[in-house]
Amino acid sequence: ENAATASVSRSYSAELLACWRLAGHRRSCALALAGAMSKAGVLRLRIISGSNLPAVDSGSCDPFLEARIVRPDGKILCSSRTKVLRRTQDPVWNEVLSLHCTEDATLELHVYDSNRFRRDTSVLNVPLGRLGELELGPEKRVAEQDGVRLVYSAEVFPKVSMAMLTSLIHSQKLDLGSICSGARDLALYYSKTLGTLAEEYASAFERIGNILQSQAWKTALDAEFEALDSDRNGMLSFDEIFPRNAHVWFSDVAQRSGMDFFESLPPAPRQPCADQALLRQQWRVYDVDHSDTLSKTEYKNFVTSIALWHLTCGFMASRARSECQIGEAELRAIWRRFEKFDADLSCTMDATELGDLLEEMGETYGADELQIIYDDMDADHDGVLDVVEFCRWWCSIPV
């Protein structure tokens, strides 16, 4: 923990790191949180400007910049580029690029001169270094090489996962601003596969972040708690909150708090409030003293997690439909199988849970073999197997 904390302390707030340490009471949750924080995130890279670029064609240059995230083995994990600016050696791009990143990967900036009828000409290559060692933040930074200056800023937000959300909320150290910003950038990262739907999810994550941090939300939950506390003992039992259909309860909460935009987004195969048993399982996470009741603070955290869980599950389901090219019935069947072994309802699966699933299928592996399979299924190398990666693997199994 000490080594990992030192390497990510530049990228994440003290509150997030404190939550990581406090999350050890739940094994799967803590592992997923550690993986998400120490290994993966969304890099928001603002490319501001360049100056003194060399002339390439006819005494000028048509520059664009390509940012690359390069894995330790030299393979490009992902890349994104700015627009092309015509006939300038002092370009002002002022564009924001979102890239999936891992802590041990390297950030590289490549400037090219755009050519219409032949390969683009390389103008400048600047390796900025490992992300875990870079100075990150919203402040402007300058990279210089051979008299050329590039001005940029870079921030890393944690990759959203329900394991992380649950741990952060449960430890009462939730940095909603960072979480929702990371979720928004992650949604935009998938714009190539989701199209305009990615922008809708990005907007939804931004809106829900504003709502969950507002005083109006806190006031509404206070009033809701008082109204539900029928015996006036300052605690809520499960039956006091859910004497009726849980989905109706959440719809009412969403309507009153301005989260009715949920209804316009594609749902997950099984929503958090789909049945009482699923909700009861999530309830137990927030019943810290095992009294089968929730205090006002525990209730607020519980409802906040349900709202974020609701939106995150829908986003993951949309990705699975698009990336795996599967219909609703097939997605529902895969989702149910994944959920059966997702013991903490985190929408992620650790190696032990994967081993249980494979054993049910009649396949038994040793710890080393299982880890190799797990790492192979973890396509984005963030140390966590999410439901989308599981769907992709499941669809690749020969019938």
From TrEMBL:
Annotated Pfam families: C2, EF-hand_7
Entry keyword annotation includes Metal-binding: yes
Domain named C2: residues: 22-152
The entry's keywords: Calcium, Metal-binding
GO terms for MF: calcium ion binding
Domain EF-hand span(s) in chain numbering: 274-309, 329-364
Keyword Hydrolase: no
PANTHER family in the cross-refs: C2 DOMAIN-CONTAINING PROTEIN
Record protein name field: Calmodulin
